[in-house]
Amino acid sequence: MSNIFNPLKWQKNTRALWGAFLLPTLIMTVYFASRHMAPFGSSTLLTVDLGQQYIDFFSAFKTMLTQDQNQLFYSFSKGLGGETFGDWAYYLFSPLNFILLFFDNVHLPAGILLLTVLKYGLASWSFAFAIHKLNWQKGYTLPVFGTSYAFMGWLVANQLNLLWLDAAILLPLIILGLEKVLDGRSIWLFILPLTAIMIINYYMAYMIGVFLVLYILWRLFWEPYQWHVRFNMLGKFAFGVIISIGLSCVTWLPTAYTLMNSKSQYMLENLKWRFDYFPPDMLGKFFVGTFNFDQMPTGLPNIFVGSLPLILFWFFITSRTVRWQVRLMTVLITAFLLVSMMYGPLNLFWHGFQFPVWYPYRFSFVFCFWLLWLAASIWQPKLHLSLLQAASLLIVFAGIVGYLYFRLPKLNFLNKEQLLIGVSFFLLLLLLMTLRRHDDYWLSFVGLLVLAEVTCGALLTLNNFSYLSNTEYQTYIKNLNDMTKPLEREKQQNFFRVTQSFQRTKGDPFQGNYNGGSTFSSALEYQQSRFMALIGQPEGDNYVSYTGGTLVSDSLLGMKYLLQSNNQQPDRPGTPANTTEFKRGDTNGIYPIKRTNDLTMLSQNPYALPVAFAASTNALNANFKDDDPVQNQNVMWQSMNGYQSKPVFNVSNFSNVHGYNTQAPETITGAYLTKDKPGNARIDLTYVANGNGPYYLTLGGDISQDDVEVQLNHEPVKNIPSHRHTIILPMSQANKGDKQTISLVFKKDSLWLQNVSLYQANSLRFADQATDLKQNGLQISQTSATNLSGDITLPKDKTVLMTSIPNTPGWQVTVDGKSVTPQTVNKFFMGIPLNAGKHHVEFKFVTPLLKTAVTISLGTLLFMLGIAWSENSKRQYRLSAAKSK
């Protein structure tokens, strides 16, 4: 027993496999510690999506497991409410995420570092384990090949996309399982890892599935098999894939249904039948450190694997010791993979027929694996290149280097130093591989060179990024926790939403565990984006951001609380004052302050409507216009009130318009302005407050932060957020007679005042109407993420049960014990026509197709268990028969 815990008494290959795991783990831990990443200092690994999106999901993951398991299926923290099973299936189903349960949201960056280095180690171990079990490599070569795989360009570049790394960990085990099955071993060796990746991340599993088809085609020609043997191999492969699909149905089937409401709306968008870039430029990505921030949105594929695999690939396709059929298939598959990483339609195919937003060519990990797999299959200590092989490769390499050298000014990912480093490693390894005498010193030197090159590539790549400081992150999260924790008890008894004028990310509601109005998710329902566009809030295909609401939209959406900065420490990163999107001055004097701390104010909206309330039947027939958000809010509000009063919002004219270095237009909305001469230019729009309510400014979808700076009384409004439709900017409250000036400062030589208009809300009229609507609200008796019930009394003039619950698939509604079908109101929410009087209403969310999926997965499992039992019975019968003889 003591030998198990004594590494000195382990077998050589056991020690080597541990080395494969520990080597990249230690290298990255030391590197992160040297960069002072938490818990080793004041920095973090948080950058781009890891810091702006994934960390919020990790926080929600812990909340779901420890507080409210219903959030596995639905959450009102996802924008205004959305299905979450599909989100979890994409972001959070990795079993390694359970490590994060030991960290609260304040210390999540430390947990993310631990998770990251663990995935580096597991990727290395997985590859080493696979090539060891196939008897391709042993001893010291295992950590060398394993570390090369862990430090391949794709994995290092996508270190921040932690959810994808499980695919790199499982791919070698999937291929190992397939090889064992083809060799007559148990089908479970293939099914288990393939099912695992289908459950953990269906998106990356799809890419692996495409690669598996290529791999089995290649494998059919490995030996001169007879055709019936090849068909038998294909049968085993197909059976394993089908069973894996059946077993994993529990995740992918409900998720596929969800995607029909999100990503599928944008499939085949912007497809162009052409190469995405000049193909030879890809050759530069084989050199060290060729990934940087500029490469994230529209870069080239990350395919760095080091020099040795490239040399061994050349040997593989030029050596007569390898069957010509295998070499031909190898060239064809490699060519297909290369063309896929440059030709638009094939790239689209690999990404499930939807172009990725940032991080292009996400499937390039299979190409890196392919090169390293071929290298591991052919490498042996006595292998050397002939003079002809070495000379021909040297000529090809010289041509590549020459091309890249003259192309350097056009490549934003490669410089002379990187080119020199890559050339040095390649020539040294090529020289060593040409030598015929290979002793232990030669082997050690080759191994060290390989490790040095891949480590150099990893560190140079990671040095290209800037990271969020731990101090900034913790300052924000601690403050958010302090302001939202006291609301959790009320949330358990009632339904309300919280809006905010500042945000670190659009996932703040997940961090604070409250019902909000913003989110950033690849599985965002398109209806959310459409509704936000209608009411003038920033939105995109995968995000919505409710930070610039109005009195009407706050009330309609049940925004009971508003988090605002108290303007303290605006220059300190992570404070609300530093992260303010829009100051909600329109609520001053209307929303009383309920609670404050050193950095934040929490005010309460006295006009927030219940999640369900009585409204006029006119709400069922409201019509809206694109890019007219204020009028759309008027229509929503008036239709619910039965058009019994005048609109809340009215157009407000500017009393004076003055241009500086530009001509003042007679009509503001739609005017096209140009500078009179080079230099600063602006236009001042002046109005005099009448004291009847707050003002709001609208900006068209083509007006961006790059075009203009908006100032109110010469104080800059925070950055204009990215938006595709006309948005609403709240202005501050002003006393009657106060002169207010909105300045539009040019950032370019011209400025289009697209949909630039000023509106005013009549606060007294709004208050009367909101109070009237609140009188007949749902009295909640039960509330959770997936179940909401209570009693409501509808008066005769308001016989529609209006809600702010999205009318999306999965919601089941019963009224007085009878199932009803809700109608869609305001193009998004549920509305239910009812008779006047008292009713008991229950809303329940059931993930679409989940029960069907569970049935299929259980049925597949029982089928396989039945086969296993049958085979075991036959085996036992044969053994007993043999003994009786």
From TrEMBL:
This is Integral membrane protein. It comes from Weissella viridescens. The keyword Transmembrane helix applies. The chain crosses the membrane at residues 16-34, 88-103, 110-131, 151-175, 187-217, 237-257, 299-317, 329-353, 359-379, 386-406, 418-435, 442-462, 849-869. Residues 565-589 are annotated as: Disordered. Residues 565-580 have a biased composition (Polar residues). Keywords: Membrane, Transmembrane, Transmembrane helix.
